[in-house]
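Sat 14:20. Reprocessing the chain from the morning session after the first attempt stalled halfway. Input below, unchanged.
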Amino acid sequence: MSTAGKVIKCKAAIVWEAGKPFSLEEVEVSPPKEHEIRVKIIATGVCRTDDHAMSPSFKEGLFPVILGHEGAGIVESIGPGVTRFKPGDKVIPLYLPQCGQCKFCLSPKTNLCERISKAKTPISDQDLMLDGTSRFMCKGKQIYHFMGTSTFSEYTVVVESSLAKIDPAAPLDKVCLIGCGFSTGYGAAINTAKVEPGSTCAVFGLGGVGLSAIMGCKAAGASRIFGIDINKSKFALAKELGATDCLSPEDFKNPIQEVIAEMTDGGVDFAIECIGNIKVMKAALCCTTVGWGTCVIVGVAVGEEGFVVSPLDLIMGRKINATFFGGWKGVDSVPNLVLDYMAGKFSLDALVSYTLPFDKINEAFDLMRQGKSNRTVLVY
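Finished this time. Tokens:
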């Protein structure tokens, strides 16, 4: 029996208030309105950004909320005006929209979209649909959306510009990582840093995003790639994916930036910070060479004021940049990234430490917080 046009009851993980764990609930998901699509989520990754959004230190958070922004699924039904999708299409929701019409979408200089250009933080917008209402209800209460995706619900509703149609043969429990972690790290190297053949690179943090950045550095032809993490259990996989050297700051008396500079005749050409720690961001900048060193910030330091950059560092030629979704325009790029994965151009399988049933969501977050997983994928 068709569910199109009807309210669907399904399971979802709700965070009722900041600092509390996920609560598995039955939710009601309304049909899509104009230019909206209802998606049955098949698999969703666990990302530290969701953890940030649960934290009491994240002042922009709204509760109760259904988090999740790294997922893949199948179109269940479409609202009026939708032309690019049909029921049965395999899709990846996009927390960074691409409307295709605003000055940002029309410019090759950025992957931002006007829909989020005024957001206070990259994760504080898109908590309601464009008409100012939610498509989620639970126990008679309206539940907020998250980043326009809310993949921690078996069914979710997204705006047409926040969805990418992908190859029908794609394995959703792997390509869901293209919805955030992989694309962010890989794109940080390819698009934002613009790593060059023969260059030297340092990647700080060897979780799913950092490992993806290492793959990006290798794909770009870097000759030497340092992977830095205090968790040495991550080193073997980092080397398998392209790192030539792995270092733990705890093994050295001197600051890690000085160690790297000594090993590279003054510093690396490119450094990518994938942790979200202010001190590590500073170390990443300082481990690059004067003259042309480039540091790219990927990690989000929630609740922190920022860090001081010496004008002298900039005068001496170091550059600092940051990336959002790896610089990809999602509607255009995500389908091609899926095809590249299916053609064997990079590995997503290696990033998946655990695949668990959705009911184990709190366990999955514990694994991430304890540093025991690169990426955990939850399947419905």
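The radius of gyration is 20 Å.
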